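Mods, move this if it's the wrong board.
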Amino acid sequence: MLRVSDLSCVRGDRSLFTGVQFAVEPGQWLHVRGANGCGKTSLLRLLAGLSQPAHGEISWDGEPVGRDGQAFRSELLYLGHHAAVKEELTAIENLQLASELDGVELTRAEAVDALKRFGLQGREDLPVRFLSAGQKRRVLLARLVARKARLWILDEPFTALQPPADSHRRRQGTRPVKAMLAVMRRDLLLAMRRKTEVLTALFFFVIVTSLFPLGIGPEPALLRKIAPGVLWVGALLATMLGLQRMFAADHADGTLEQMVLSPTPLGLLVAGKNAAHWLLSGLPLVVLAPLLGMQFDLDAEALGVLILGLLLGTPVLSLVGSIGAALTLGVRGGGVLLSLLVLPLYIPTLIFGAGAVQAHISGQGAGGHLSLLAALLALAVFFAPWATTAALRIALE
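Not the wrong board. Structure tokens:
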């Protein structure tokens, strides 16, 4: 049972509502009506746990929802204003990936049947950008078929629909790792359909690192000396190009709300996005670095140290960058602020990464620098998803 006691909501210096209380028993439904701006959506976001009330308590099965948020989210299905679909993906891809996020493994036949029930027969393999606003909404509502949830919170579910679609449900499983992999696969699919974003960072890396040999001239000793710093600074800046987009699109289309309310811990889903970001912006740099290193007259062993350092360091750049991307989400001028936040945090990785190659070239050995890079990676893997999760929850408030 859902019970609300003496609930109040304040936005800025304005009180939207006070003293709201009600109870919804199993099998009952509650229709919230009111004028625009009176706080209907704010109330639903409070019930879903996306925002915190100024006063009062929300309980589920007799327990405050904040006491065991993961258990509450596993029984909740929240559909907000935004369609929470990716326009580059097809209707069936959107539904299957959203179902995996919910912990449900949906076969193609089941997904086709769900879309058919909501009037999308024959449009399953069309990219969502070719669908009307009402049809996009039906893709979102098809999740009601794919997931068995005890509590549905639907914010204007029939917007742009005529007539309203029917609701159905099915049994759900709990597969956190599959949900994380689904987030990775979704981001990789989107990147393959927005190739210019990935190629821009690679071209930037190639051009920046190639300008230095052309400008300095063919002096092998000097080129070898500046090579580690140039290659690492180029990789750092190229990685930063995609940071602002890491969560922006999900925030704009409502997908981020669905991730926060997924029964899968948000930290795992953030880790999946971090992994996808590294695969798209970090791993290609590691592959290109040896070819660009030859411009600086680096020998094979130095190139090997460079590759190993980048393999350890570029994931740190993605993980730390995700914290900055989450903190600046929705902030006007966030790109500049993001740079100011993350560049100081990148300095240790830059020092140890470039220092490893320089130490090898000078004969001192790169083991110490690589060990410190590995330690930074271990710390980032442990703490960065947690910090990013906290920042995302703040951004959604």
